Amino acid sequence: MSALRKLSVAHLRGSIQPFSLSFEKDKRLTVIYGENGSGKSTLCDAFDFLGNGLVGSIENRGLGGGLSKYWASIGKTLAEISVVLETDSTTHSARLVRSNVVVNPQEGRPNVQVLRRDKMLTLVTASPSERYEAIRRFIDVGGIEAAEGALRDAIKSAEQGRDSAALRLQENRGEIYRLWQAAGGPDEDFLGWAQTEANRAVGEFAPRIDALDALLTAYARLTDLPGQWTQTQQQIRDAGTELANAQAAVEAAQNGIVSDAADMVTLLESAQAYLQRHRDPEVCPVCQSGEKAQDLSERLQERVAGFQVLREATQRLRNVHTQLERAKQSADILAAQAHEKAEQFGKVSATHQWPEGIDVPEPPPADIDEWPGWLAAAEGLHMVWRSALAQCQAQAQNHSALQGAVKNYTESMQAQHELDAVLPRLQRTLDIVVEERKRYTDKVLADIADEVGRLYERIHPKEDSNKITLQLDAKRRASLAINTTFHGTVAPPTAYFSDSHMDTLGLCIFLANAKLNEPRDKILVLDDVLGSVDEPHVERLIDLLLDECQGFRHCLIATHYRPWRSKHHWRMLRDGKCQFVELGKWTRDSGVSQIGSLDHIDQLHHLLAQGAPDAQLICAKAGTVLESLLKFVAVIYGLRLPYRTDAQYTLGELLDAMDCKLRKALRVEIAEPDAGGTGATYRAVPLEPHLDELKRIAQLRNAVGAHFNELSFDLLDSDALNFGRCVHDLAEALTDSQSGWPQSKASGSHWATKNDSRRLHPLTRPA
Amino acid sequence: MSESTVTASEQLAAKIIQRLIDEKLLSANDGNKLIPKVATGKVRAEDWRLAAEKSVPEV
């Protein structure tokens, strides 16, 4: 990620006038120092505005909703707000367009995370769900949990399937046993018997059933025939008798009329029919005589009526004759049917091979009158055939049921075996999914907790309260509990921690969370987070921030903590990676402003460089600087000094504490970078000449720089300037404006600054 | 921002599936197909069942 170059803010909150903050190259940490109301939070808001579209410093102040109306500087409109961040690779600008913060370009918008003092405690006292929300994206494995649910469903379904298969297997087994019993228990191993029986073809029963069925059908067709035959014969006999009677009646009627009465009737009926068509003829249509032609029709009708009895008798004779003929035809048909059915029976009888116990008689005799006897003889056999058919059908049904039961049994057995193989694998799969999910989230939480604990331990070493644990609530989704071990007691931090401790814990949680993912992309903004931390812990907190901020793209710390400024002025914060920016007093006209923030050594340099140097100011500043230099030497070499509760010593005491051996041995190696900037050579500077000279003129400090003293009237300004230069030279030899004091003895041979730009020899005071 | 686009579920899904493959509870082919479904929670009970059935060694 590219380094920050410049932040320009206009008309946002305190930036009444456009303000620019330039970032020093290769320094990832910027400390913004300023008194309250100097505009520090405005700069933090500018980052918040750009990265998150927010101005967080005015949230939670009881202003209600619609806070954006307060975003603009007094007298400015929201549309005039502008924040621009220039980096090595690009420039992002942010403006407010219709209540939306629009960043251009949107791609690569800076990732800014802001922690403000009022939010520090919230991180600790937040509800478990809010705390979970803060780290959700690192531990939210909702997809896996859903997949786990589907896996549990699969297992449940497989278990139900297996239980069902086992139940079916039991039922199939019972059915087979029942069929085995029904079959008379033919074998000891009923399942083996069932398998053998089931393998027999079901078609084995069909021919027997068909044969018996055909036999019974053929027999049944015979049984009705004798009755029908007898009835037909009776009809023939009855018709014969009736015919004889009808003939006798005709003969009697004829005898009563004329011999040719029958012909006459026919003739007369024909004449009558003629006369109906030709009424009242003038002549007889037969003889053509006109005589007696009158009333011929009436007379003819009278004569025809006289033949009525004969006609009826004749008609009856015809009818009876017809009946007789029909009865004879029926008898012929029955005889033919009987012959056919008898043949059919014979065919059925001959076609099939009858099992033992099934007797089949010869076909019925040709004379139908003998059939009743034949049927009576076969009646017992018929019952046997019917029983045999029923038995055979039952056997076929049982066989079919057995085959079905064996098939079901086999399928159930196979299903059970398959599920027996699959179920443990599904269960093992679930175990792995659950185990990996828990391990994953536990590890993420443990990593965060460990990091929080590590950071907290740096600020509160050996306070026996560094064991931080984060735990997901198994009963509640998206809920994260935090606990600490406080002198052996595990409890939420809110139970025992002071507000100051919870604040630092909150900061540690914030830093640990910020470090979770791509910290190199993040700009951290810590707004006044040192405010509530008590004095002993601030030093360690500053050290912690100096170290941890190097892992991020950039870190901006806004503070009004005065010791930080003092440390800066004494080059004690210098590690070559921290930029210190001091803001001036905010005014209605100028808004936010940056003031010079020279350290004391640079200030001495400036005083010496002035055209008309002020001897008194130079001696005063040089005296203070010399005190700091000599105290530093006294501390690292453990020089002997009289004990005083206020630890205040004169320059003379401090200079005298350095014995001759130490003075001779004191030497600083100053790194001078190569032309290529890849390495450095060291120039040795012995300190003894500086110290000897300073010992000689040290009283100038008191005479000129510290007190009103008439003796100073006789002293030359050149002596005062010499004192100042001498102190400045010693300070520049001993300290580095970028990396500060040589406080590290990690080399084992000398004291060194963090970037090794100064090497102070010896490591220890010569014996 | 150039934050990682791999979600926690995706990371974990890949880890889980690899372990299932290692333990021969899934074939590599089925496992790789399942990863996105597992990560997004779209895997169904039938998918798990089928994959488990296919992984049973043939006797």
Descriptive labels:
heterodimer, A: 767 residues, alpha+beta, Rossmann fold, 4 domains, six-stranded mixed sheet, five-stranded antiparallel sheet, 22 helices, 13% strand, B: 59 residues, mainly alpha, 3 helices, globular
What do the pLDDT scores of chain B average to? 88
* CATH-derived architecture of the largest domain in chain A: 3-Layer(aba) Sandwich
Highest CATH level, the class of the largest domain in chain A: Alpha Beta
Order of helices and strands of chain B: HHH
Return the structural class of chain B: mainly alpha
Of all chain pairs, the largest interface belongs to: A-B, 38 and 35 residues
For the biggest β-sheet of chain A, the strand order reads: 7-11-12-3-13-14
Which whole number gives the mean pLDDT of chain A?
A: 87
Give a brief outline of the structure.
The complex is a heterodimer of chains A (767) and B (59). Chain A has 22 helices and 18 strands.
What does this entry look like structurally?
By secondary structure, chain A is an alpha+beta fold. Chain A has 4 domains: 4-139 and 498-597, 3-Layer(aba) Sandwich (Rossmann fold); 146-216 and 394-430, no CATH class; 230-336, no CATH class; 601-761, no CATH class. Helices cover 54% and strands 13% of the residues of chain A. A 6-stranded mixed sheet of chain A has the order 7-11-12-3-13-14, with helices on both faces. Chain A has a 5-stranded antiparallel sheet with strand order 2-1-4-5-6, covered by helices on one side. In chain A, strands 16-15-18-17 form a 4-stranded antiparallel sheet. In chain A, strand 9 (480-486) and strand 10 (489-491) form a beta hairpin. The radius of gyration of chain A is 65 Å and the shape is elongated. With 59 residues, chain B is mainly alpha-helical. The radius of gyration of chain B is 13 Å and the shape is globular. The chains are: A alpha+beta (767), B mainly alpha (59). The interface between A and B is large, with 38 and 35 residues.
